[in-house]
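Hi team,

As requested, here is the filled-out complex form for the magnesium ion run. I kept the field names the same as last time so the parser does not choke. Let me know if anything looks off before we queue the next batch.

— J.
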Amino acid sequence: MNPLLQAKDVNIFYGDKQAVQNVDLDVHTGTVNALIGPSGCGKTTFLRAINRMHDLTPGARVTGQILLDGEDIYAPGVDPVAMRRRVGMVFQKPNPFPTMSVFDNVVAGLKLAGMRNRDQLMAVAERSLRGAALWEEVKERLNTPATGLSGGQQQRLCIARALAVDPEILLMDEPTSALDPSSTAKIEELMTELKKVTTIIIVTHNMHQAARVSDTTSFFLVGDLVEHGPTDRLFQSPRDERTEAYVTGRFG
Ligand SMILES: Nc1ncnc2c1ncn2[C@@H]1O[C@H](COP(=O)(O)OP(=O)(O)O)[C@@H](O)[C@H]1O
Ligand SMILES: [Mg+2]
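And here is what came back:
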């Protein structure tokens, strides 16, 4: 099976400073892929390249190729807005639209894309909220402000909002680092369900989380992808001594 996503010799710069170098990575449909490594090693920088978020950062530059279904997302003529509908993103801190209701948050992307039919919007909202394991908790309060939800609920709302436009890939940048342990556990459990409908790339500085939720793990160190492989293999028998030092807790 062809990879859903392929990074080929990806280099990322902030001005003159290089933050990520020579990364090659394949990601397959229906898997959870963790990016791990110490703070500042380039995980977020690499993740943001996958939906062209660096376009919005002055001075940032990406070279190499990132192929989605075989097509380079950086090719001339690719509309980044349309592309980002295929590559959803969930951030470290839950960021629901603060002035909108729960319902309006979930369907915001669909409305932007022109969907107006109330029944249709409701059907997608329910499906997305169920997908994010939030429906039962919010079905009676869909028209109340999103900001009234707990932090963990807000993060699942952001997951629902991303799912609503049927992304092929969902990027998650430390999605549980602002959450308490029980909200974190809920989101980790959710991953196994989510990968049935989308493909996940998750940045986490928590190795145990990577070990619990992911199928593959990529270990980054100062901008290099040091080692990539099936999660069990990478944690149990790392091939690179730097990976071994990290996963055994000797640094980081
Ligand atoms: N907007 C930016 N401008 C300049 N340097 C940045 C910017 N964002 C990140 N960096 C630098 O790039 C490197 C990688 O950062 P980052 O990708 O955020 O690491 P991680 O997510 O692994 O903690 C760090 O040295 C960081 O200081
Ligand atoms: Mg980061």
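Two things worth flagging: The CA atoms of residues 65 and 74 lie 7 Å apart. The chain is about 35% helix and 25% strand.

Thanks,
J.
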